[in-house]
Design goal:
The complex is a heterodimer of chains A (about 70) and B (about 500).
Chain A: H1 9-16, H2 45-71
Chain B: E1 6-8, E2 12-14, H1 18-32, E3 47-51, E4 57-61, H2 69-85, E5 93-96, E6 100-103, H3 116-135, E7 148-153, E8 156-161, H4 167-181, H5 198-213, H6 219-232, H7 238-244, H8 252-261, H9 275-285, H10 295-314, H11 318-331, H12 335-347, H13 351-371, E9 374-376, E10 382-385, H14 391-407, H15 411-424, H16 428-440, H17 444-457, H18 462-474, H19 478-491, H20 496-506
Antiparallel strand pairs in B: 1-2, 2-3, 3-4, 4-6, 5-6, 7-8, 9-10
Helix pairs in contact in B: 3-5, 3-7, 5-6, 9-10, 10-11, 11-12, 12-13, 12-14, 13-14, 14-15, 14-16, 15-16, 16-17, 16-18, 17-18, 18-19, 19-20
Classes of the chains: A mainly alpha (about 70), B alpha+beta (about 500).
Protein name (chain B): Tetratricopeptide repeat protein
InterPro entries (chain B): TPR-like_helical_dom_sf
Chain lengths: ~70, ~500
């Protein structure tokens, strides 16, 4: 084949030698990373309780309103 | 042999100039090619010689073109492990790296026809070697007659396995076997690549070795062969397979003791690479090859330095890791290595230098990425090619840069880098970090969107879930936040820390 193309065997080989590359099998361990972003400060129970109480109160008020109308 | 004009590795007198022999071996390997097409005499794959001190005859497999450096150095590292095993059934390796020097093995062919007891003894020996190789993480030794050879001494047969061997020799074996199966030489479809485990492949190969060695008149052995073939499929490891041959061997007590001493390997472990040895070899090889071919060693060598740096960083040795990654960058200015250098500099308290160096590398990598590996002159004319930058590599560098900016309390800069990183290659960690940057910029709804994507990509990561919960609470979507936290608890019901956190935020 190489002869048919007028190439020496070495020249034919030179044409098909792959480009240099970084071997993928030598990337087995993921590189180090910076620390992740610090965790957010979450509101703790009292605020949530207040919210819950507020929601519960609002619901209760809405429930009482028709009854008051009936009574009125 | 006459007094040697040529010496190899200062220990071996050889028949011819090693440099020209290496060229001949390389030419023979090219002749064979990757598809088992070309045929060459086996002798063309070896340089013969003698060990000067012991006068022992040796066969030498030399290194070829630098394009094969990675394969060569890996094989030589395996050869050193084989040397250390000192098995009586392995052809002694006398020197490994560069090139591999074997003690002269017995002739490969023809395979002898043996009594059942001898064939069984050889099969047990093969099991022992395979078990040892599996324990070393060596999954697939070559089983062909050029590698798994047999010798006879004082009427006792034993195997002499050439390990780690040469792919080219195995190719010649396969060609011979194919010619025997298919003498007409008509083209047949290529065999399908096997998905079998290394244990299954080895089990089958050892049973076939036994069948091949069994003399045609060994009737009892033939009956046993059928039993062994049936039972072999139940064997989970090589000692279990070896036990099937015990009823046939001449000295069952001694043989049973050898079997008990074999390592029991049911899953071949991942072989840890010896990066120190690879780096030593690369540094020694690099000056000896031409500039034109240097990249065949420099690029993998940089990879090896980066792997060692990664391990050193994980072991809490950032200064040593930084030395490695600096060398990697000298060999190959790859943006991934620049990102690692930035992380290490940051760990060593040099955040400004870390960010500046990474910014320069990222700008260059972004330009190369945009150009698709094409280099143009000022007039836009293509004048060459450059190493392409993979999207994942650029995204990694951008992510590192974004995180460092976030730690420097520069959320806008972090947001830009992390958005680009996530767009190039979305990951849960990038979505999470981008969410954090957006949150700090006051874009809470957008933060919640990306945090939801991080949770979708990695639902079992509590950090991502709690970040989303925080944004949802800030947005007043308390019920959604509670649902997300509850889903986390359902996925990890035994995680006390998450339960406690849930109770602190939402009550019982």
């Amino acid at each position: 084949m190489a002869g048919a193309l007028g190439l020496t065997a070495a020249e034919a080989r030179a044409d098909i030698i792959p480009e240099p590359r970084r071997p993928s099998e030598w990337k087995e361990t993921p590189p180090p990373m910076p620390e992740p972003p610090p965790e957010k400060e979450l509101p703790t129970l009292p605020l949530v309780v207040l919210l819950a109480v507020a929601v519960a109160t609002a619901s209760a008020l809405r429930l009482r309103q028709p009854a008051a109308q009936v009574c009125g | 042999m006459k007094r040697a004009a040529h010496v190899y590795a200062e220990r071996f007198a050889v028949e011819r100039d090693p440099a020209s022999a290496a060229q001949q071996q390389e030419a023979a390997r090219w002749e064979i090619g990757p598809f088992d097409r070309g045929s060459v005499p086996e002798a063309s794959l070896w340089l013969h010689g003698v060990e000067i001190e012991t006068k022992q005859r040796v066969w030498i497999a030399l290194r070829g073109h630098p394009v094969g450096w990675v394969a060569n150095v890996e094989t030589e590292v395996r050869a050193r492990a084989v040397m250390a095993s000192r098995s009586p059934f392995i052809v002694p390796v006398l020197h490994a790296g560069p090139g591999i020097v074997y003690a002269e093995p017995p002739p490969a062919r023809p395979r002898p026809q043996l009594r059942a007891a001898d064939a069984a003894a050889c099969a047990v020996q093969a099991c022992e070697v395979v078990a040892q190789m599996h324990a070393l993480g060596e999954a697939a030794p070559y089983f062909g007659p050029s590698h798994l050879r047999l010798s006879e001494r004082d009427g006792v047969w034993r195997i002499a396995w050439l390990l780690p061997g040469q792919w080219a020799l195995d190719s010649l074996d396969r060609q011979l076997a194919e010619r025997a199966r298919n003498p007409t030489g008509k083209k047949r479809p290529a065999p399908r690549r096997t998905e079998d485990s290394p244990i299954t492949v080895a089990r089958r190969a050892v049973v076939e070795l036994f069948a091949e060695l069994l003399g045609p008149h060994e009737r009892a052995g033939r009956d046993e062969l059928e039993r062994i073939r049936r039972k072999a499929t139940e064997c989970a490891d090589m000692p279990a397979l070896a036990r099937l041959f015990l009823p046939l061997v001449a000295e069952p007590v001694e043989c049973a003791a050898r079997i008990e001493a074999m390592p029991v390997v049911r899953t071949v472990p991942k072989r840890e690479r010896d990066w120190d040895a690879i780096i030593r070899d690369g540094e020694a090889t690099l000056p000896s090859i031409s500039r034109k071919n240097a990249a065949y060693v420099a690029l993998p060598l940089a990879c090896a330095y980066h792997q060692r740096a990664t391990r050193r960083a994980a072991a809490g040795e950032p200064a040593l890791a930084l030395e490695d990654v600096e060398r990697a960058l000298k060999l190959d200015p790859c943006v991934t290595y620049a990102a690692t250098r930035a992380v290490l500099r940051d760990r060593l308290g040099q955040r400004a230098a870390a960010r500046a160096g990474l910014a320069t590398a990222t700008v260059a990598a972004r330009a190369t990425f945009a150009a698709g590996g094409v280099v143009r002159d000022n007039n836009g004319v293509i004048v060459g090619t450059a190493e392409r930058v993979a999207p994942a590599d650029l995204a990694h560098a951008l992510e590192v840069g974004g995180l460092l900016a976030l730690h420097d309390d520069e959320p806008v800069e972090a947001m830009d880098a992390l958005l680009e990183a996530f767009t190039l290659a979305p990951t849960a960690a990038r979505a999470h970090a981008l969410g954090a940057a957006l949150f700090r910029c006051g874009h809470v709804a957008a933060a919640a969107d990306y945090e939801a994507r991080s949770v979708a990509l990695a639902p079992d990561e509590p950090r991502y879930v709690w970040a989303l919960v925080g944004s949802l609470l800030r947005l007043g979507r308390a019920e959604e936040a509670r649902e997300q936290a509850l889903a986390l608890l359902r996925r990890s019901p035994d995680d006390a820390a998450q339960r406690e956190k849930f109770a602190r935020v939402f009550g019982a």
